[in-house]
Design goal:
The protein has four helices and no strands. It is mainly alpha-helical and 71 residues long. Helix 1 packs across helix 3 and helix 2 crosses helix 3.
Length: 71
């Protein structure tokens, strides 16, 4: 259920949750998705959350997150 709510928020992001500035809320959502995929990808298929996938990839491409990879 939680990822469903995050999917809706990611679909409405322009381009980030609170508009033009990337902030802590964006970090939290992107990291929550990334951790969910890292630990439970079989239970949380990407195909069910296309907006969240795109949002997280966009966030992870930023220097602020790219400099600290999960793996």
């Amino acid at each position: 259920a939680a990822f469903g709510d995050l999917e809706k928020a990611a679909a409405a992001a322009r381009p980030w949750l609170q508009g033009g500035r990337f902030n802590a809320a964006d970090v939290a959502v992107a990291i929550a998705w990334r951790f969910g995929q890292f630990y439970s990808a079989k239970e949380i298929p990407e195909s069910r959350y296309p907006a969240l996938v795109a949002y997280s990839r966009r966030a992870e491409a930023l220097p602020e997150l790219a400099s600290t990879p999960l793996e």
